[in-house]
Model the fold of this input.
Amino acid sequence: MTSGELAARERVLGRISAALGRERSIASVDQLPADVSDRISRHQRHTLPTIGDDLVGRLITQMEAVLMSVVRLQSRSDVVEAVRFYCASEGIDGPMTVSPALADLDWPAETGVGAASGVELTSVTPCLAAVAETGSVALASHAATPATLNFLPDNHIIVLYENQVVAHVDDALAKMRDLDPLPRALNFVTGPSRTGDIEQTIEIGAHGPRRMHVLLLPGDPPV
Amino acid sequence: MKPESLAFSANASRALLDEDLKAALSHVKTGFVGKRLEAISVVPEWQQIREEAAALKNHVLDNLDHYLVAYEASVQRNGGHVHWASDGDELARVVVDICTQAGARTVAKGKTMVGEEADVNGALEAAGIEPIETDLGEYIIQLAKEPPSHIIAPAVHKTKEQVADLFHEHHQQYGLTERLIDRGALVNEARTVLREKFRVADVGITGANFLIAETGQHVLVTNEGNGDLTSNLPRVQIVVVGIEKVVPTLEDASSLLRLLARSATGQHFSNYTSLMSGPKREGDLDGPDAFHVVLVDNKRTEMLAGDLKEMLRCIRCGACMNHCPVYGSVGGHAYGWVYPGPMGSVVTPAIIGVEKAKDLPHACTLNGRCAEVCPMSIPLPKLLRRHRQTTFERGLQSANARYGLGLWAWAASRPKLYRGLTRMSVSLLSRLGRRRGHFRRLPFAGGWTQARDLPAPQGGSTFMSLYAQQRSAEEAGQ
Amino acid sequence: MSPETQTTPGTVGLFVTCLVDLQRPNVGFASIRLLEAAGCKVVVPESQTCCGQPAYNSGDNASAQRIARNVIEAFEGLDHVVAPSGSCAGMIREHFPELFEGDAEWQPRAQALAERTHELTSFLIDVLGADPAQLIPDTARFDGIVTYHDSCSGLRELGIKEQPRALLASVTGLDLKEMDDTEVCCGFGGTFCVKYPDISERMVSDKAALVKATGAGAVLGGDMGCLLNIAGRLSRLDQDVRVYHVAEVLAGMTDVAPIGAVNNAIADNGKANEGTRR
Done:
């Protein structure tokens, strides 16, 4: 911060404390009042919508409602074939890049591994969680899971394991909280990119993927 | 942008004559109102979630400095820089400084209403830096050189034909020479043009929906994904945000997110809801090299200190304007500044001064539909009345209105006099209006009779005098 | 409401409202007839004028307080205060206490009055627990399709929605057909309609179109402000739709001309009379 900005900080904090009828504000986080730091560390949940016990069933319903397609696979070794089949059936023919986290699979030789460069038509990524409440996939950025794969390609294929399905957004956030370090980005994606900015009529593929496809596997992801 | 709120009446009257605007605004009802109702009808816990959210925000406002300091420390822990700006000018200066130091030539921008407050685009342009709006609606109005007319649908006032004309005019330079009219084709054309802009942008600037004190993350909600491209591709990321957006924890943000999308667009969750903080981590293959957040006051502390404090609970969903019959009639531009509709009529006078927006608090029937749908239970009509009090106290209402009202109030607190005056005028009007039952025109009633007849009094005299006559007849008969 | 919590009718002070006083005495007499049918003793305090809303909504709180004090003094000895208007009842119930915030003498008096003040249909149904079938006189007959406009203050400040409909269901011949957006403001808004006539015109035109779209021969409501506005617009458009206050229909007192139409032109209250809007 420049000295001007330091002054701005003091001015804003001073105005707030004056507005709240306090003599002065705290200078640093070490002086946080106990009730405030308690409030932050308690992670208290608010009322959550009831969503029933069938998390996977609800997830699939919600995903389909936001135009994501879901197929069930038996094992991780089926992923490459399922991707090939999906692309063939959708008529997608072009460069593909997968997350480094999935690099060990038996991809065709021309498949890219890494972040998106903007030329690929399709990406394949793992995810941190999927949320039954909303039908979202939660994607945490990491060296092995670059975030640009979620946004640049036209088609985004996500590998999801049943045990990654959580009930509420709060559960996915709690999973992120346990990551160390905190990922730079946690992206909840709930269907292909859309816009209603022309006459409030929904059009798909505004900036990000036009298609999203979920490969649902049993059990837990590999560690 | 330069406020034009003083011209509300004239602008509103002009807007009412605009047939394109009328057609465009008709989409608000189909696009937002019905979908919202449908979305909340499947959440029986809605009222409970709403009440908790208001309580949460009240708690934050009562400890605002503490949570901001906690958020600041968390951002720094993640390797980000925190800046403070006490007003719009300071915000613009901080943003330009960061961009200049980064050697930026083009800036990709996600939608930021705080940025609009400070006219960040104007400041960037003045510094020789090209800002490119990436939200489709913002991009459309940037091409049209217009301000937004809605906080979540900035180009809601445009028909697709008008968008087609704009694209046809501005995209020929990229070799896109055909005038497309189909909505999907227009969206696709914008995608193509903006992809290239993302590629070359040095800095990405977005707003934020929430700031999380616990983790130092900000939450950014979009449907298009433009916010994420803006945040992930350029080498420098700047977030500009009002100080009232901070919440304590991830759970608190989650609770507000439950209200936001449903209230705004009737979605259960927006397509892209992202939590971000800091520059790329060690080993990351993508993400910005530097991360800045600017915390902006711009009169929010004045609202906190005064009787508009409840307005700071606002999460900018736009439900109030979607349900406002005045907004639905005149559109957003008539309001003359960044924020239209009911929330705008509270916020605009608070930020630019009541003197410069004295019409806005009065341009409302106090029908209360805005407060009914507000997910944060902000008593908008009450806050508009507060502004009205200020305009009255400072003598900002028209002399005619003040004089007429004063005269009437003087009489209404003198029952005997009032009785006599009303009896006289009613019997006169009854006689005059006997033939038609209504008046087409009447002196001093031009505002009323411009568009409607004035029903003639029914009874020949006031109720009070007829009732008195009836009583004395009854007593005489006993 | 369970019978245990029902209030005895007692003495009701009729808050006539300034618009009923000036424009539509019939609504006042209809209110008295309904209240008496429900077993109330009705008094009409002579010193009442207006609830003070125009001043309050214009930001002139001092004038509003002066008028409010007049209302409080006129009505505070009575068991209940009832107004044939959600807007005026809402002013007394919701805003009088707020208006005197911090005033040790008047705030408690305002609060006490607020708690005993009700809109007419809400008083009959919610407070007295009246049985519409017994309350509505046999003479209340209104043939044909009608539609109902929910006035904003009554709806949102006092929760008035089902009460008038429950009562109307007992009126012989009446067929209620809801319009779209019945809860959307008609554009009256007190001084709003004269301060911003263009915007008000658009809003009331939209409302008139919605009324018309139902095919109803009459539109009813619980607030004279809205009704004058809607009637005035329908009249200007030469639309053959009659406008009545709900109390008039419930009390079987539609033998007077509809709002804005020619006095006594409609002798038979069942049928629209050609030429009344010429």
Remarks:
- Residues 19-41 of chain B form the longest helix (23 residues).
- Chain B is about 50% helix and 10% strand.
- The longest strand of chain B covers residues 236-242.
- The two ends of chain B are 75 Å apart (CA to CA).
